[in-house]
Design brief:
Layout: E1 19-23, H1 27-38, E2 42-47, E3 60-63, H2 69-77, E4 81-84, H3 91-98, H4 107-113, H5 116-125, E5 133-136, H6 139-149, E6 153-157, E7 167-170, H7 176-183, E8 188-192, E9 196-206, E10 212-214, E11 218-223, E12 226-232, H8 238-254, E13 259-268, E14 273-279, H9 289-292, H10 297-306, E15 319-326, H11 337-341, E16 346-350, E17 361-369, H12 372-386
Helix pairs in contact: 1-10, 2-3, 6-7
Bound molecules: adenosine monophosphate.
Length: 393
Protein backbone atom coordinates (compact mmCIF):
# COMPACT_ATOMS: atom_id res chain seq x y z
CA UNK A 1 0.00 0.00 0.00
CA UNK A 2 1.41 3.38 -0.96
CA UNK A 3 0.58 6.03 1.61
CA UNK A 4 -0.30 9.54 0.50
CA UNK A 5 2.23 10.72 3.02
CA UNK A 6 5.75 10.85 1.70
CA UNK A 7 7.11 8.85 4.63
CA UNK A 8 6.48 5.47 3.00
CA UNK A 9 7.61 6.45 -0.46
CA UNK A 10 11.16 5.16 0.41
CA UNK A 11 14.04 7.23 -1.05
CA UNK A 12 11.69 9.43 -3.17
CA UNK A 13 10.96 13.09 -2.49
CA UNK A 14 8.47 14.16 0.18
CA UNK A 15 5.41 15.22 -1.74
CA UNK A 16 2.68 17.75 -0.89
CA UNK A 17 0.57 16.32 1.92
CA UNK A 18 3.69 15.32 3.87
CA UNK A 19 4.39 16.96 7.23
CA UNK A 20 7.48 19.10 7.76
CA UNK A 21 8.79 19.55 11.30
CA UNK A 22 10.55 22.77 12.27
CA UNK A 23 12.78 23.20 15.32
CA UNK A 24 12.36 26.80 16.43
CA UNK A 25 9.28 28.96 16.02
CA UNK A 26 10.28 32.54 15.21
CA UNK A 27 9.80 34.55 12.03
CA UNK A 28 12.01 32.26 9.92
CA UNK A 29 9.83 29.28 10.84
CA UNK A 30 6.74 31.37 10.17
CA UNK A 31 7.82 32.31 6.65
CA UNK A 32 8.85 28.69 5.96
CA UNK A 33 5.46 27.49 7.21
CA UNK A 34 3.64 29.98 4.98
CA UNK A 35 5.62 28.78 1.94
CA UNK A 36 5.06 25.13 2.86
CA UNK A 37 1.33 25.49 3.43
CA UNK A 38 0.97 27.35 0.13
CA UNK A 39 2.42 24.25 -1.52
CA UNK A 40 0.12 21.84 0.29
CA UNK A 41 2.45 20.63 3.05
CA UNK A 42 1.58 20.33 6.71
CA UNK A 43 3.84 21.96 9.29
CA UNK A 44 4.55 21.15 12.92
CA UNK A 45 6.81 23.45 14.91
CA UNK A 46 8.67 22.68 18.12
CA UNK A 47 10.00 25.27 20.56
CA UNK A 48 9.62 26.23 24.22
CA UNK A 49 7.14 28.96 23.23
CA UNK A 50 3.37 28.82 22.89
CA UNK A 51 1.53 31.20 20.52
CA UNK A 52 4.80 31.72 18.64
CA UNK A 53 5.20 33.50 15.27
CA UNK A 54 5.55 30.14 13.47
CA UNK A 55 3.08 28.29 15.71
CA UNK A 56 0.35 30.76 14.72
CA UNK A 57 0.52 29.71 11.07
CA UNK A 58 1.52 26.05 11.50
CA UNK A 59 -0.84 23.08 11.66
CA UNK A 60 0.47 22.19 15.09
CA UNK A 61 2.68 23.79 17.71
CA UNK A 62 4.62 21.57 20.11
CA UNK A 63 5.58 23.68 23.13
CA UNK A 64 8.28 22.10 25.30
CA UNK A 65 11.92 22.76 26.22
CA UNK A 66 14.47 21.52 23.66
CA UNK A 67 15.94 19.37 26.43
CA UNK A 68 12.63 17.51 26.96
CA UNK A 69 13.66 14.57 24.77
CA UNK A 70 10.41 12.62 25.23
CA UNK A 71 8.51 15.62 23.82
CA UNK A 72 11.08 15.92 21.03
CA UNK A 73 10.60 12.24 20.19
CA UNK A 74 6.81 12.67 20.17
CA UNK A 75 7.18 15.61 17.74
CA UNK A 76 9.54 13.60 15.50
CA UNK A 77 7.02 10.75 15.37
CA UNK A 78 4.42 13.11 13.87
CA UNK A 79 6.47 14.46 10.97
CA UNK A 80 8.17 13.17 7.80
CA UNK A 81 11.33 15.32 7.89
CA UNK A 82 12.73 18.00 10.15
CA UNK A 83 14.54 21.24 9.52
CA UNK A 84 15.34 24.12 11.86
CA UNK A 85 15.17 27.88 11.90
CA UNK A 86 17.27 28.23 15.02
CA UNK A 87 20.73 26.69 14.94
CA UNK A 88 21.41 26.59 18.65
CA UNK A 89 19.32 23.45 19.00
CA UNK A 90 21.11 21.16 21.51
CA UNK A 91 22.92 18.20 19.89
CA UNK A 92 20.84 15.66 21.87
CA UNK A 93 17.65 17.24 20.47
CA UNK A 94 18.87 16.98 16.87
CA UNK A 95 20.05 13.39 17.44
CA UNK A 96 16.71 12.38 18.97
CA UNK A 97 14.91 13.69 15.89
CA UNK A 98 17.46 12.14 13.52
CA UNK A 99 16.79 8.70 15.02
CA UNK A 100 13.27 8.88 13.55
CA UNK A 101 13.29 11.07 10.43
CA UNK A 102 15.74 12.84 8.13
CA UNK A 103 17.08 16.11 9.60
CA UNK A 104 18.12 18.61 6.93
CA UNK A 105 20.63 20.18 7.21
CA UNK A 106 22.22 17.25 9.07
CA UNK A 107 23.13 17.54 12.78
CA UNK A 108 26.81 17.56 11.72
CA UNK A 109 26.21 20.88 9.93
CA UNK A 110 24.58 22.30 13.05
CA UNK A 111 27.57 21.15 15.06
CA UNK A 112 30.00 23.14 12.87
CA UNK A 113 27.88 26.29 12.75
CA UNK A 114 26.91 26.39 16.44
CA UNK A 115 30.30 27.40 17.66
CA UNK A 116 32.42 30.19 16.21
CA UNK A 117 35.80 28.49 16.75
CA UNK A 118 34.63 25.29 15.08
CA UNK A 119 33.07 27.28 12.26
CA UNK A 120 36.12 29.45 11.52
CA UNK A 121 38.40 26.42 11.97
CA UNK A 122 36.32 24.43 9.47
CA UNK A 123 36.53 27.27 6.95
CA UNK A 124 40.24 27.98 7.45
CA UNK A 125 41.21 24.29 7.18
CA UNK A 126 39.44 24.05 3.84
CA UNK A 127 41.06 27.16 2.43
CA UNK A 128 38.09 29.54 2.63
CA UNK A 129 39.16 33.13 3.35
CA UNK A 130 38.60 34.25 6.96
CA UNK A 131 40.13 36.97 9.09
CA UNK A 132 43.06 35.73 11.25
CA UNK A 133 41.74 34.40 14.57
CA UNK A 134 42.79 32.69 17.81
CA UNK A 135 41.02 30.84 20.59
CA UNK A 136 41.16 32.22 24.13
CA UNK A 137 40.15 30.28 27.24
CA UNK A 138 41.54 32.70 29.80
CA UNK A 139 42.56 36.33 30.21
CA UNK A 140 46.19 35.28 29.57
CA UNK A 141 45.25 33.54 26.31
CA UNK A 142 43.26 36.59 25.26
CA UNK A 143 46.32 38.79 25.89
CA UNK A 144 48.48 36.34 23.89
CA UNK A 145 45.94 36.38 21.04
CA UNK A 146 46.05 40.19 20.98
CA UNK A 147 49.84 40.08 20.87
CA UNK A 148 49.70 37.69 17.90
CA UNK A 149 46.89 39.38 15.96
CA UNK A 150 47.52 43.01 16.88
CA UNK A 151 44.82 45.58 17.65
CA UNK A 152 42.17 46.67 17.01
CA UNK A 153 40.59 43.25 17.41
CA UNK A 154 37.16 41.79 18.10
CA UNK A 155 36.57 39.14 20.77
CA UNK A 156 33.38 37.09 20.70
CA UNK A 157 31.99 34.34 22.90
CA UNK A 158 32.59 31.08 21.03
CA UNK A 159 29.07 29.73 21.54
CA UNK A 160 25.53 31.05 21.30
CA UNK A 161 26.30 34.47 19.86
CA UNK A 162 24.29 36.32 17.25
CA UNK A 163 23.58 39.91 16.21
CA UNK A 164 26.69 41.20 17.93
CA UNK A 165 25.66 39.76 21.32
CA UNK A 166 28.64 38.59 23.35
CA UNK A 167 31.05 40.71 21.35
CA UNK A 168 33.72 43.19 22.49
CA UNK A 169 35.83 45.48 20.36
CA UNK A 170 39.38 45.84 21.70
CA UNK A 171 41.38 48.94 20.80
CA UNK A 172 44.69 48.18 22.51
CA UNK A 173 46.65 45.36 24.23
CA UNK A 174 45.96 46.92 27.65
CA UNK A 175 42.25 46.07 27.38
CA UNK A 176 42.59 42.27 27.68
CA UNK A 177 41.48 42.05 31.32
CA UNK A 178 38.49 44.33 30.85
CA UNK A 179 37.44 42.51 27.64
CA UNK A 180 37.71 39.09 29.29
CA UNK A 181 35.55 40.32 32.18
CA UNK A 182 32.91 41.76 29.84
CA UNK A 183 32.73 38.60 27.70
CA UNK A 184 31.96 36.56 30.83
CA UNK A 185 32.66 33.29 29.02
CA UNK A 186 35.03 30.35 29.33
CA UNK A 187 35.83 30.26 25.62
CA UNK A 188 36.21 33.13 23.15
CA UNK A 189 37.33 33.67 19.59
CA UNK A 190 39.61 36.64 19.00
CA UNK A 191 39.64 38.05 15.46
CA UNK A 192 41.77 40.68 13.78
CA UNK A 193 39.57 43.69 13.07
CA UNK A 194 38.54 43.81 9.43
CA UNK A 195 38.60 47.21 7.80
CA UNK A 196 35.65 46.65 5.50
CA UNK A 197 34.05 48.60 2.70
CA UNK A 198 30.76 46.77 3.08
CA UNK A 199 29.12 43.65 4.43
CA UNK A 200 27.61 41.21 1.95
CA UNK A 201 25.90 37.85 2.12
CA UNK A 202 25.08 34.96 -0.15
CA UNK A 203 22.12 32.70 0.52
CA UNK A 204 22.80 29.38 -1.15
CA UNK A 205 20.68 26.25 -1.33
CA UNK A 206 21.88 22.71 -1.97
CA UNK A 207 19.49 19.94 -2.89
CA UNK A 208 19.55 16.29 -1.85
CA UNK A 209 21.04 15.49 -5.29
CA UNK A 210 23.92 17.96 -4.78
CA UNK A 211 22.49 20.67 -7.04
CA UNK A 212 23.47 24.14 -5.82
CA UNK A 213 21.59 27.41 -6.40
CA UNK A 214 22.54 30.78 -4.94
CA UNK A 215 20.68 34.08 -4.91
CA UNK A 216 22.34 37.24 -6.24
CA UNK A 217 24.71 38.95 -3.79
CA UNK A 218 23.09 40.97 -1.00
CA UNK A 219 24.62 44.14 0.48
CA UNK A 220 23.83 44.60 4.17
CA UNK A 221 23.84 47.67 6.41
CA UNK A 222 23.83 47.06 10.14
CA UNK A 223 22.73 49.38 12.92
CA UNK A 224 23.93 48.56 16.44
CA UNK A 225 25.12 45.12 15.19
CA UNK A 226 21.65 44.20 13.91
CA UNK A 227 20.81 43.99 10.21
CA UNK A 228 19.04 47.18 9.17
CA UNK A 229 18.77 47.32 5.37
CA UNK A 230 19.59 44.83 2.59
CA UNK A 231 19.74 45.61 -1.12
CA UNK A 232 20.10 43.27 -4.08
CA UNK A 233 21.98 42.99 -6.26
CA UNK A 234 24.87 44.35 -4.17
CA UNK A 235 26.56 47.32 -5.84
CA UNK A 236 29.95 45.65 -6.33
CA UNK A 237 32.02 44.79 -9.42
CA UNK A 238 30.84 41.60 -11.17
CA UNK A 239 34.06 39.75 -10.30
CA UNK A 240 33.44 40.34 -6.57
CA UNK A 241 29.89 38.98 -6.90
CA UNK A 242 31.25 35.98 -8.79
CA UNK A 243 33.88 35.28 -6.16
CA UNK A 244 31.32 35.57 -3.33
CA UNK A 245 29.10 33.11 -5.16
CA UNK A 246 31.98 30.66 -5.59
CA UNK A 247 32.89 30.88 -1.90
CA UNK A 248 29.28 30.27 -0.81
CA UNK A 249 28.77 27.37 -3.19
CA UNK A 250 32.06 25.88 -2.06
CA UNK A 251 31.08 26.14 1.62
CA UNK A 252 27.71 24.47 0.91
CA UNK A 253 29.53 21.57 -0.78
CA UNK A 254 32.20 21.34 1.93
CA UNK A 255 29.46 21.05 4.57
CA UNK A 256 27.63 18.47 2.43
CA UNK A 257 24.64 20.72 3.06
CA UNK A 258 21.09 19.76 2.21
CA UNK A 259 19.08 22.91 2.85
CA UNK A 260 19.75 26.63 2.85
CA UNK A 261 22.87 28.38 4.12
CA UNK A 262 23.72 32.04 4.52
CA UNK A 263 27.38 32.98 4.18
CA UNK A 264 28.03 36.44 5.61
CA UNK A 265 31.18 38.10 4.33
CA UNK A 266 33.16 41.30 4.63
CA UNK A 267 34.33 43.01 1.48
CA UNK A 268 37.57 44.40 2.92
CA UNK A 269 38.90 47.77 1.81
CA UNK A 270 41.78 45.92 0.12
CA UNK A 271 39.23 44.12 -2.09
CA UNK A 272 39.36 40.71 -0.37
CA UNK A 273 36.23 38.82 0.62
CA UNK A 274 36.44 37.29 4.12
CA UNK A 275 33.80 34.96 5.55
CA UNK A 276 32.51 36.23 8.90
CA UNK A 277 29.72 33.86 9.78
CA UNK A 278 27.60 30.93 8.56
CA UNK A 279 23.91 30.37 9.27
CA UNK A 280 22.62 26.98 8.05
CA UNK A 281 19.08 28.27 7.42
CA UNK A 282 17.29 31.11 5.67
CA UNK A 283 18.58 34.50 6.77
CA UNK A 284 17.24 37.97 7.44
CA UNK A 285 19.23 39.29 4.46
CA UNK A 286 17.30 36.89 2.20
CA UNK A 287 13.81 38.09 3.14
CA UNK A 288 13.56 40.19 -0.02
CA UNK A 289 13.55 36.96 -2.07
CA UNK A 290 9.87 36.53 -1.14
CA UNK A 291 8.89 39.33 -3.51
CA UNK A 292 12.02 39.70 -5.60
CA UNK A 293 13.10 36.20 -6.62
CA UNK A 294 11.46 33.49 -8.71
CA UNK A 295 11.76 31.18 -5.68
CA UNK A 296 11.96 32.54 -2.12
CA UNK A 297 14.63 31.36 0.30
CA UNK A 298 11.84 29.65 2.29
CA UNK A 299 10.44 27.76 -0.67
CA UNK A 300 14.03 26.82 -1.51
CA UNK A 301 14.51 25.46 2.03
CA UNK A 302 11.29 23.45 1.69
CA UNK A 303 12.34 22.08 -1.70
CA UNK A 304 15.76 21.04 -0.38
CA UNK A 305 14.33 19.46 2.77
CA UNK A 306 11.76 17.52 0.70
CA UNK A 307 14.29 16.31 -1.88
CA UNK A 308 12.56 18.25 -4.65
CA UNK A 309 14.32 20.10 -7.50
CA UNK A 310 15.52 23.55 -6.38
CA UNK A 311 13.77 26.58 -7.88
CA UNK A 312 15.32 29.44 -9.82
CA UNK A 313 17.06 31.95 -7.55
CA UNK A 314 16.95 34.65 -10.25
CA UNK A 315 15.51 38.04 -9.36
CA UNK A 316 12.22 38.82 -11.07
CA UNK A 317 12.87 42.58 -10.83
CA UNK A 318 16.04 44.55 -11.57
CA UNK A 319 16.58 45.34 -7.88
CA UNK A 320 15.05 45.03 -4.42
CA UNK A 321 15.51 46.27 -0.87
CA UNK A 322 14.44 45.18 2.61
CA UNK A 323 14.29 47.26 5.79
CA UNK A 324 13.84 45.66 9.20
CA UNK A 325 11.16 46.86 11.60
CA UNK A 326 12.44 46.70 15.17
CA UNK A 327 10.38 47.06 18.32
CA UNK A 328 11.71 50.61 18.84
CA UNK A 329 9.27 51.72 16.12
CA UNK A 330 6.46 51.17 18.61
CA UNK A 331 7.91 53.78 21.02
CA UNK A 332 5.36 56.40 20.05
CA UNK A 333 2.43 53.98 19.86
CA UNK A 334 1.17 51.70 17.09
CA UNK A 335 3.13 52.47 13.89
CA UNK A 336 1.23 54.25 11.11
CA UNK A 337 0.67 51.26 8.81
CA UNK A 338 -1.51 53.05 6.24
CA UNK A 339 1.17 55.72 5.78
CA UNK A 340 3.81 53.08 4.99
CA UNK A 341 1.51 51.16 2.68
CA UNK A 342 0.82 54.38 0.76
CA UNK A 343 4.39 54.21 -0.56
CA UNK A 344 4.07 52.59 -4.01
CA UNK A 345 5.50 49.11 -4.38
CA UNK A 346 6.14 48.47 -0.68
CA UNK A 347 5.19 45.13 0.87
CA UNK A 348 4.67 44.69 4.62
CA UNK A 349 5.59 41.60 6.63
CA UNK A 350 4.74 41.36 10.33
CA UNK A 351 5.66 38.34 12.40
CA UNK A 352 2.72 38.33 14.81
CA UNK A 353 4.83 39.08 17.90
CA UNK A 354 2.58 40.42 20.61
CA UNK A 355 5.19 42.44 22.48
CA UNK A 356 7.32 45.11 20.85
CA UNK A 357 10.60 45.37 22.72
CA UNK A 358 13.51 47.62 21.70
CA UNK A 359 15.74 45.72 19.26
CA UNK A 360 13.21 42.91 18.72
CA UNK A 361 12.65 42.00 15.07
CA UNK A 362 8.91 42.60 14.58
CA UNK A 363 8.67 42.60 10.79
CA UNK A 364 10.17 44.01 7.61
CA UNK A 365 9.35 46.01 4.49
CA UNK A 366 10.34 45.03 0.96
CA UNK A 367 10.30 46.98 -2.29
CA UNK A 368 11.29 46.04 -5.82
CA UNK A 369 12.38 48.77 -8.22
CA UNK A 370 14.40 49.61 -11.31
CA UNK A 371 17.54 50.26 -9.26
CA UNK A 372 18.84 49.28 -5.82
CA UNK A 373 18.88 52.97 -4.83
CA UNK A 374 15.20 53.38 -5.75
CA UNK A 375 14.26 50.23 -3.84
CA UNK A 376 16.22 51.39 -0.80
CA UNK A 377 14.61 54.84 -0.97
CA UNK A 378 11.15 53.24 -1.07
CA UNK A 379 11.62 51.03 2.01
CA UNK A 380 13.28 53.86 3.94
CA UNK A 381 10.45 56.27 3.06
CA UNK A 382 7.88 53.70 4.13
CA UNK A 383 9.71 53.02 7.39
CA UNK A 384 10.05 56.73 8.15
CA UNK A 385 6.30 57.13 7.56
CA UNK A 386 5.61 54.48 10.22
CA UNK A 387 7.16 56.37 13.07
CA UNK A 388 4.87 58.42 15.26
CA UNK A 389 6.49 61.10 17.34
CA UNK A 390 6.27 60.09 21.00
CA UNK A 391 3.82 62.29 22.87
CA UNK A 392 5.58 64.89 25.00
CA UNK A 393 4.89 65.14 28.72
P1 LIG B 1 28.75 38.77 14.22
O1 LIG B 1 28.04 38.60 15.52
O2 LIG B 1 29.98 37.95 14.07
O3 LIG B 1 27.81 38.64 13.04
O4 LIG B 1 29.22 40.28 14.17
C1 LIG B 1 28.27 41.33 14.18
C2 LIG B 1 28.86 42.54 13.47
O5 LIG B 1 30.06 42.98 14.11
C3 LIG B 1 29.28 42.26 12.03
O6 LIG B 1 28.17 42.34 11.17
C4 LIG B 1 30.31 43.36 11.82
O7 LIG B 1 29.66 44.59 11.56
C5 LIG B 1 31.02 43.44 13.15
N1 LIG B 1 32.21 42.56 13.18
C6 LIG B 1 32.22 41.26 13.56
N2 LIG B 1 33.47 40.73 13.43
C7 LIG B 1 34.27 41.72 12.96
C8 LIG B 1 35.66 41.79 12.61
N3 LIG B 1 36.50 40.76 12.76
N4 LIG B 1 36.11 42.97 12.13
C9 LIG B 1 35.27 44.03 12.00
N5 LIG B 1 33.97 44.02 12.31
C10 LIG B 1 33.45 42.89 12.79
Amino acid sequence: VVSRRGRHAAAGPLLPGATIGVLGSGQLGRMLALAARRMGYRVHVFSPERGSPAGEVADHEHAAPYEHLAAVDHFAAKVDAVTFEFENVPAATAETVAARVPVRPAPAVLHVCQQRLREKGFLAERGFPVTPFRAARSEEELAAALAALGTPAVAKTAGWGYDGKGQVRIEGPGEAAEAWRRLATDEAIVEAFVDFEREVSVVVARGADGTVADFPLFANDHARHVLDVTVAPAPVPPEVAREASEIARGVARALDLVGVLCVEMFLATDGRLLVNELAPRPHNSGHLTIEAAATSQFEQQLRAVCGLPLGSPALVAPAAAMANLLGDLWDGGEPDWPAALAVPGVALHLYGKRQARPGRKMGHLTAVAATADDARAAVLAARAALRRTPAVG
